[in-house]
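fyi for ur records
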Amino acid sequence: MKILVTGGAGFIGSHTVVELTNAGYEPVIIDNFNNSEKTVLKGLRRILKRPVKYYEKDCNDVKALEQICKKENIEGVIHFAAYKAVGESVEKPLKYYENNIGSTLKVLEVMLKLGIKNLVFSSSCTVYGQPDEIPVTEDTPRKPAASPYGNTKTICEDILRDTITAGNPLKIIALRYFNPIGAHPSANIGELPRGVPSNLVPFITQTAIGIRQKLTVFGNDYNTSDGTNVRDFIHVVDLAKAHVSALKLLATQQDNYYNVFNVGTGKGNTVLEIIKAFEKVNKLKLNYEIGPRRPGDVEKIYGSVEKSEKVMGWKTEKTLEDSVRDAWRWEKKIAKNKK
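which gave:
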């Protein structure tokens, strides 16, 4: 079964390509490399021992999207391709609405035209905002998003639901991710942030290796065990495997199916717990300081994954220690390759 992976050279996309291949699917990547590097393709080749088929195209290009799907006899789509920097989305909202929502509409248009039925959509726990109760479940009311980026995920979920409600012969699952971290254990692929990382773990690893002078922890006066924010951090390989589970579930469903699933560990860790785990596992001391709170940060969020376990038959296998060990191994590999 050939699966089109939009944004397949990105952090989560590339790891999903590996897990799709391991599960017997044939992934085909479409990526414009605006926010990813072609070196990822070499990393994938090293892991899989063969090249991965890819097209350097933008999935906002309907004609190219349609041609690729026809040529490759695509039977399913995993749609990752989206801009994802929260801060930039606040500064450039129209860019985010046009790209993230536009590309989703175009993917749906091509799927309906060509009779491609299976879609796994990359959503986010940002749709919950700052929840009134945790852990959040898939039935937790969504709240107004804190950023245009988050709002694009909410709007795209609504578009998917409305498409199914209208009676279209599609089968769709939206996966609401929590915080993916880590890297492939081989250190051949991992997270490649451009410029200053906006995510915690890449900032930790870049500080540890000397690219960043110090790490700032944004606030230690929250209502949490140590005063720092709580998040659900999931190993990217576990997250990638959730997409395989979603495709397998879609294969058992009748047309006109829509469902959403939380994809996380089911528990939260504070920022300081992540830092301490990194120091302990990798036998390092990090240069970090406590700074003021950062505007827009949610105090704490983690999700129930009971539905994912029961309905998709998926749950995480890797530990926080695995995540920070693999992330550090990957950072050292990047540094070695630059020499």
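Residues 229 and 297 are 8 Å apart (CA to CA). thats all i got for now
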